[in-house]
Amino acid sequence: MRFFLALLLSIAIAQASIFSDGIKAYQNKDYEQAFQLFKRALNNQSSIQANYFLGLMYLRGWGTQKNLSMAQRHLSLASAIGNARAKCLLAETYLQQDQKQKARSILSDKALQNVFECGEVKEKYKLQ
After folding, report:
1. Given this model, what pLDDT does residue 76 score?
2. CATH for 2-124 (2.60.120.430, 3.20.20.30, 1.25.40.10, 1.10.357.10)
3. Which residues of the chain have pLDDT under 50?
């Protein structure tokens, strides 16, 4: 029984390090490596927060081809677990598809008022 618990713990630690390695690669602007690591982390269910980074990377085309549909998918999942930054970037995907009403609906949320990414999106699309 102890062996089984130790094995499960070591697997969990290894999986968590995949996400951590993705963060390091992202911070070093090694976007292709970061993208692959975040995909692995998500596939292994070791980090649901990988959805935020994958959405961001699909939105910007960092480490992968720009793909608004995939960006929306991942950012929606991250938003559903309460990631405020993901909500702001989700609004940006709508703006890029000329769906201003959807974007404004998200960006008008008072809970997002002080989120840096929302301010950036509002400024970029002149929604202030």
Report:
1. 96
2. 1.25.40.10
3. 3-13
